[in-house]
Write a structure and sequence with these properties.
Blueprint: E1 2-11, E2 14-23, E3 29-33, E4 43-45, E5 49-50, E6 53-58, H1 79-90, H2 95-111, E7 114-121, H3 137-149, E8 152-159, H4 181-194, E9 199-201, E10 203-205, H5 213-223, E11 230-234, H6 238-248, H7 252-259, E12 266-270, H8 276-285, E13 288-291, H9 293-298, H10 306-311, E14 316-318, H11 328-343, H12 358-373, E15 389-392, H13 407-413, E16 420-425, E17 428-432, E18 435-436, H14 439-455
Parallel strand pairs: 1-4, 6-7, 7-8, 8-9, 8-10, 10-11, 11-12, 12-13, 13-14
Antiparallel strand pairs: 1-2, 2-3, 5-15, 15-16, 16-17, 17-18
Helix pairs in contact: 2-3, 2-14, 4-5, 12-13
């Protein structure tokens, strides 16, 4: 058993004093108590302690183009032109390069306060669209990268069968993504059977445009009642909504909720363009949503109806997606600020009757929703959850002079410098004073991979 002790910790949605956190041999919390004097054997954590979050939607390979798609050529104005650039990058990456890219990303995600990442994984085949001798070559590269960094990983093999609603095959530049329902489930089963520490697997459907009703039905029939997360991109862009209406007569979320029996395993990624009726349907099904504010802003997708999702009590989480932002404080700030700009109000996400702190309400929601997105039974500072936590630096610019009970507000909305000092995963410190033990070596491998890609 390992015991930690913190003068202040954010437990059950409130700041507690003199908190003892005990982890068992399985590296999960056995008890968390406040108002306790430090035991002699306890590790004294010198700084406010908060739970980490799950990054519920990630495409690790897109870290290779973060910041490199910000120049405009004639005719390049939206998500779809960005997607063509992304495909060009995807066609050049091999498993060894993916491992180097993902390891760098995962170190950055740890520093950004995430300790579990859900990989929406559709980079599957060699550049010619054929088959690797090891069909899990890319998935294993991600797993090895996660082990290198020390982060938890949920891999989500993706059903990807067609290029659009009215097409029955993929575009040539999508050839590396091809995977049918049986292949998705085979990958999921194999990854879970490996029982790698800190790693699990679920399934994903790229989008309604990339999989027919029959494809999705086949996958759901194979999955049955297996307790694995099911993720899908949906209603990210207005053109996608228009194409879905043209092809089916219904909006994407409306069609999805009517076509299949959604449940708590389902995670609707983005869901940017949702009506109140669609939000009500998702709530009635018990499904969750994954919001990616940094990427949605970067791609010009639009602004989600956050008050609508909150009012309906739909579980939600956040994701780094295209990796233009790699820390949850910035994601939560983008989420709230977009609402303020559109509505010309402040503290849109706050609930004066229950939780007046905007940051605390956003954080608590993302905390609970993230566990479901990753297929984990428990998360945060509670008995049964993995012993993950963050230690804040009270002397950082953002938190200097701030009382502990205001630390979340300052962390999200006043962050000129990194305020997360230490990061623990399964009771082990993986980030110390903002640095990773293997950070220099991982950065060197990442730089070499980027040079190789640039030379192609």
């Amino acid at each position: 058993m390992t015991t930690f002790w913190a003068a202040h910790a954010f437990v059950d949605g409130a700041w507690r004093e003199r908190v003892e956190l005990r982890a068992g041999a399985d590296r999960h919390w056995t008890s968390i108590r406040d108002g306790v004097d430090r035991a002699p054997e306890a590790v004294d954590v010198t700084g406010p302690v908060i739970p980490s979050l799950v990054d519920a939607h990630s495409h690790a390979f897109q870290r290779a183009m973060a910041g490199l798609a910000e120049r405009r050529n004639a005719g390049e104005v939206d998500f779809w032109s960005w997607r063509d650039r992304m495909y060009a990058v995807a066609l050049r990456i091999g498993p060894d390069q993916l491992r180097a890219i993902a390891a760098q990303l995962y170190v950055e995600l740890l520093r950004g306060g995430y300790t579990q990442v859900c990989e929406f994984h559709y980079l599957k085949r060699p550049a010619d669209g054929g088959n690797y001798a090891n069909p899990l070559a890319f998935a294993h590269a991600l797993g090895d990268a996660a082990a290198d960094a020390g982060i938890g990983l949920t891999t989500l093999p993706v059903l990807y069968r067609r290029a659009g609603f009215t097409q029955d095959s993929l575009r040539d530049d999508q050839r590396r993504f091809r995977l049918d329902a049986d292949g998705v489930w085979a990958d999921c089963v194999a990854l879970n059977a490996a029982r790698h520490p800190l790693q699990n697997a679920g399934v994903a459907i790229h989008s309604l445009r990339a999989a027919s009703r029959e494809d999705v039905a086949r996958l759901l029939a194979i999955v049955g009642d297996a307790d694995v997360p099911i993720h899908i991109h949906v209603a990210e862009q207005t053109r996608e909504v228009d194409d879905c209406v043209a092809a089916t007569g219904k909006r994407p979320i409306e069609w999805l909720c009517g076509a299949f029996p959604l449940d708590a395993r389902w995670q609707l990624v983005h869901a940017t363009h949702a009506t109140r009726a669609e939000i009500a349907a998702v709530a009635a099904a018990g499904a969750g949503v994954v919001l990616c504010p940094g990427t949605e802003a970067n791609l010009g997708d639009g602004v989600p109806d956050l008050p609508g999702w909150l009012a309906a009590r739909v579980p939600w989480s956040i994701g780094s997606d295209s990796q233009v932002t790699r820390g949850w404080p910035e994601e939560l700030r983008w989420l709230e600020y977009a609402q303020r700009l559109v509505r010309r109000e402040r503290n849109v996400a706050a609930d004066p009757g229950r939780e007046p702190s905007t940051a605390a309400r956003l954080f608590a929601a993302a905390l609970g929703g993230g566990a479901r997105a990753a297929g984990l039974p428990a998360w945060g500072l509670q008995a049964g959850a993995r012993a993950d936590f963050l230690v804040l630096d009270p002397f950082s610019d953002a938190l200097l002079g701030v009382l502990p009970e205001r630390a979340l507000d300052a962390l999200v909305f006043s962050s000129p410098s990194a305020a997360i000092r230490d990061v623990y995963v399964a009771g082990q410190r993986v980030i110390r004073d903002g640095a990773h033990e293997r950070g220099d070596a991982i950065a060197s491998e990442f730089t070499a991979a980027m040079r190789e890609l640039s030379a192609q």
